[in-house]
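Duplicate of #3305? Posting structure anyway:
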């Protein structure tokens, strides 16, 4: 899956390796930067040509008012767009220069700047179109104040979701590429939009979490902690957990099968809660290296052992 936002590209790494993967990522990012700069140069050249024509051929536009309207609207859009592009370039350049020696690159900051630039460009595009069709923007905005309030009320949830997205983009709590847990969902952040946070879980499923949900939910950023830690949460019926030591030994046996990949003495099994008819367990162990495939394999084996142990204890439950 390839997913592009601004200058970030999620490349299908499983088909690449080593130097080839790094060079492909660098070439893709370089291509996006070149494309963005060429577009800016084209807009600046067109803007200067229009400005020069206004200075030298104003009489022509007076005799052709319709064409003058179109050019004036285009000039309004280009003026705003050029200034926005320059501001975006300056802000991103300053940010990258200040964080050049920082290993933790916050791609969401750049994404937030890009999203704001896009919104401002849309606003200037609308203003330009209004001028092209001879609509006075000030009078138009004054006349639709009540309608705008009604629209804002109808789309209130989307607007608050968008604001939450912008706040998340400029947050320093997590960034694109971090492994997080948001509510019941856990995985790597692959994109942040004005509507959702996109997370890829261990099953390679893409989960879309609304920004409002993420903004009001406790988020655990596992990338800021030990990213090699493997955690399992599970519940067992209260009537089946009278042999907790047996459960622990069975799970430890699974971890010992992968002794070459698991940190010695990192296995922990503890009770974190007791309900009316269940017991909530948490199992933690630390991997020696970051390997998603191996993590998934060990996780599945541990869950299978939990199911088998529960079935065994259910069968051997002492009868009253």
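Output from current build:
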């Amino acid at each position: 899956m390839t997913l592009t936002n601004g200058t970030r590209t999620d490349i299908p790494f499983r088909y690449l390796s080593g130097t080839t993967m790094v060079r492909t990522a660098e070439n893709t990012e370089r291509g996006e930067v070149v494309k963005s700069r060429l577009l800016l140069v084209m807009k600046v050249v067109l803007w200067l040509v229009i400005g020069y024509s206004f200075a030298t051929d104003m009489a022509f536009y007076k005799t052709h008012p319709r064409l003058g309207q179109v050019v004036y609207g285009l000039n309004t859009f280009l003026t705003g767009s050029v200034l926005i592009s320059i501001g975006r370039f300056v802000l991103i350049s300053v940010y990258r220069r200040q964080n050049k020696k920082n290993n933790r690159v916050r791609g969401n900051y750049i994404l937030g700047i890009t999203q704001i630039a896009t919104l401002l460009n849309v606003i200037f595009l609308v203003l330009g179109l209004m001028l092209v069709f001879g609509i006075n923007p000030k009078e138009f905005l004054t006349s639709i104040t009540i309608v705008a309030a009604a629209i804002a009320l109808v789309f209130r949830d989307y607007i608050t979701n968008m604001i939450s997205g912008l706040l998340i983009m400029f947050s320093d709590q997590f960034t694109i590429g971090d492994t997080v847990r948001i509510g019941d969902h856990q995985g790597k952040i692959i994109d942040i939009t004005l509507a959702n946070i996109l997370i890829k879980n261990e099953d390679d499923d893409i989960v879309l979490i609304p920004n409002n949900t993420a903004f009001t939910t406790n988020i655990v950023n596992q990338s800021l902690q030990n990213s090699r830690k493997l955690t399992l949460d599970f519940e067992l019926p209260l009537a089946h957990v009278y042999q907790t030591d047996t459960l622990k030994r069975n799970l430890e046996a699974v971890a010992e099968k992968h002794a070459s990949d698991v940190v010695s003495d990192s296995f922990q099994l503890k009770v974190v809660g007791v309900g009316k008819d269940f017991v909530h367990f948490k199992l933690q162990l630390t991997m020696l290296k970051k390997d998603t495939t191996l993590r998934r394999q060990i996780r599945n084996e541990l869950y299978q052992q939990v199911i088998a142990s529960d079935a065994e204890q259910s069968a051997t439950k002492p009868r009253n």
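Confirmed duplicate; merging threads. The domain at 229-315 is CATH 3.30.70.2520 (Alpha-Beta Plaits). Residues 1-26 have pLDDT under 50 and may be disordered.
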